[in-house]
């Protein structure tokens, strides 16, 4: 041990503080760790709902221990839709991404223990939900050249990114076409 380490009270261990902290967390009793994770997920869910203006009673959660090989490996979160709102379906993926980002703000290691998120309809009254449409709705052909809205947004974002990166590949720029009305 060097003289400087003795002066400043460093321990004789050569293990960095980060490794010591990680070792302490991994030695935390499994039940205590699971309870902490469950509470974290509940709090972050409530906060994410509030952040996006969604009433907290509309989405609740069930939290399960995820197991593999006979031992606990993490946590699985099931989000329960308790209120019918079509916008929740439209924006469900964005909501889930926002939720995961917020969880990782509190626990950067969440991706190692949050093994999955699933959604379940748990409506008190499903009479307000629409019936299934005609099967042709799913297979109907679009007009030539028409793309789903998501594909148009992705293509526009890719083109904007390429232009901002200085890529002036002429194949990206085509003459404009009249919109089919």
Helical content class: 40-55%
Describe the sheet with the most strands: 3 strands, mixed
Low-confidence stretches: 12-24
State the CATH topology of the domain at 28-141.
GMP Synthetase, Chain A, domain 3
Please give the CATH class of the domain at 28-141. Alpha Beta
Q: What is the distance, rounded to the nearest whole angstrom, between the alpha carbons of the first and last residues?
A: 80 Å
- Give the ordered list of helices and strands: HHHEEHHHEHH
Q: Can you give a write-up of this model?
A:
The protein has 181 residues and is α+β, with helices and mostly antiparallel strands. The chain has a domain at 28-141: GMP Synthetase, Chain A, domain 3 (2-Layer Sandwich), CATH 3.30.300. Helix content is 45%, strand content 16%. The protein has 8 helices and 3 strands; from the N terminus they run αααββαααβαα. The protein has helices spanning 3-7, 17-26, 30-51, 86-90, 92-106, 110-113, 136-139, 149-164; strands at residues 59-68, 71-81, 114-121. The chain has a 3-stranded mixed sheet. The protein is extended.
């Amino acid at each position: 041990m060097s003289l400087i380490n003795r002066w400043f009270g460093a321990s004789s261990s050569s293990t960095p503080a980060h490794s010591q902290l990680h070792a302490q967390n991994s030695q935390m009793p499994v039940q205590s760790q699971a309870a902490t994770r469950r509470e974290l997920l509940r709090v972050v869910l409530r906060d994410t709902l509030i952040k996006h203006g969604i009433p907290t009673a509309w989405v609740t959660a069930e939290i399960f221990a995820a197991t593999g090989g006979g031992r606990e490996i993490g946590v699985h979160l099931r989000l329960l839709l308790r209120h019918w709102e079509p916008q929740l379906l439209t924006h469900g993926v964005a909501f889930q991404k926002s939720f995961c980002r917020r969880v990782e703000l509190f626990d950067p290691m969440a991706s190692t223990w949050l093994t999955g998120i699933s959604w379940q309809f748990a409506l008190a009254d499903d009479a307000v939900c629409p019936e299934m449409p005609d099967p042709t709705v799913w297979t109907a052909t679009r007009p030539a050249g028409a793309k789903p809205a998501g594909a148009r947004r992705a293509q526009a974002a890719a083109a904007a990114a390429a232009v901002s990166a200085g890529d002036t590949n002429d194949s990206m720029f085509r003459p404009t076409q009249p919109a089919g009305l």
